[in-house]
Amino acid sequence: MKVAITGATGFVGTRLVQRLHKEGHQIIVLTRNTASARRHFPAQTFANVEIVAYTPTTSGAWQDVIAGCDGVVNLAGEPIAEARWTPEHKREILNSRQLGTEKIVEAIAKANPKPTVLVNASAIGYYGTSETTTFDENSPSGRDFLAQVCQAWEAEAQKVKQSGVRLVILRLGIVLGLGGALGKMITPFKLYAGGPIGSGRQWFSWIHIDDLVNLIVQALTNPQLEGVYNATAPHPVRMNDLSQTMGQVMNRPSWLPVPAFALEALLGDGAIVVLEGQQVLPKRALESGIKYQYQNLQQALQEILQSS
């Protein structure tokens, strides 16, 4: 295949490029920072990776590279839990997804020949937060800021169907690997200061990064996959369970909680990402016969942490 990828230098995107490269596919990396992309994917190692500069929220010549691609994977978006949610940062979170997806869909509409599939990221934040409700792909959307972002993000992606292109939307759970959210939690445990965040009762709907990459590859290659899929593992856990399991796997104590006020002081409204959660099940992925390499949390953490 020939696949164009946005967000390719991110946590998930890097692993996806590595997988597609290993399988011999051609990859176009659409990036705002070509120097960073070349460090991630040096030409001598990644001969089949082409790096193209783009401005995600602006039309331009970069859109021409979509023509002739078999698929497009749109992973780009401003990080959600990295900084306080000032009004400006909230606009960046929304625009990077809504306008970024609009310009990808515009590029696909112009392309001749067109790709056959767009795999577009979304997030389980679509459902809002709850300690009691279980969500699947048929559940209604929430009403908070992240739910509104996901609705706008997905609405732009849906427009690609007007070009006759198959659309797969993946609502990503918390991706586990050496990086991302887990990467930030590992250090306190190594220092014997690990523990649950906030109440510990909030749900943690997770997926191992390799299972997510596999799901993206399946979405690219299997014409039967279409519509919305929850990109989560079959067995979500509560935050207390996550902390206890990390402690067991790392042979460290897991009793020192991170108080909610400490995170709120750091991230403001953005603390909702880790202080509140949702129990999300991958109903459609399981019905489609998608196989998970890492179905339970202990198995996933053992694989990740033994290489840390």
Write the layout of secondary structure elements.
Layout (H helix, E strand, L loop, with lengths): L1 E5 L4 H12 L3 E6 L2 H7 L8 E5 L17 E4 L12 H24 L6 E7 L10 E2 L9 H14 L7 E7 L1 E3 L3 H11 L12 E2 L1 E3 H13 L5 E5 L5 E2 H12 L9 H8 L4 H4 L3 E2 L2 H5 L9 H9 L3
Parallel strand pairs: 1-2, 1-4, 2-3, 4-5, 5-7, 6-13, 7-11, 8-10
Antiparallel strand pairs: 9-12
Give an account of the 3D structure.
- It is a single chain.
- This protein is of the alpha/beta class.
- The protein is built from eleven helices and 13 strands.
- α1 crosses α6, α3 runs parallel beside α4 (145-158) and α7 crosses α11.
- The model has no long low-confidence stretch (mean pLDDT 95).
Spell the H/E element sequence: EHEHEEHEEHEEHEEHEEHHHEHH
Taken from the alpha-carbon principal axes, the silhouette is: globular
Alpha plus pi helix count: 11
Radius of gyration: 19 Å
Instruction: Catalogue the unreliable spans.
Output: none
Strand order of the largest sheet: 3-2-1-4-5-7-11
Oligomer: single chain
Quick one: how many beta strands?
Answer: 13
Biggest beta-sheet profile: 7 strands, parallel
Instruction: For the record, give the distance between the C-alpha atoms at the N and C termini, rounded to a whole number.
Output: 32 Å
Mean pLDDT: 95
What share of the residues lie within helices? 25-40%
Provide the structure class: alpha/beta
Q: Per DSSP, what share of the residues sits in E-state strands of 2 or more residues?
A: 15-25%
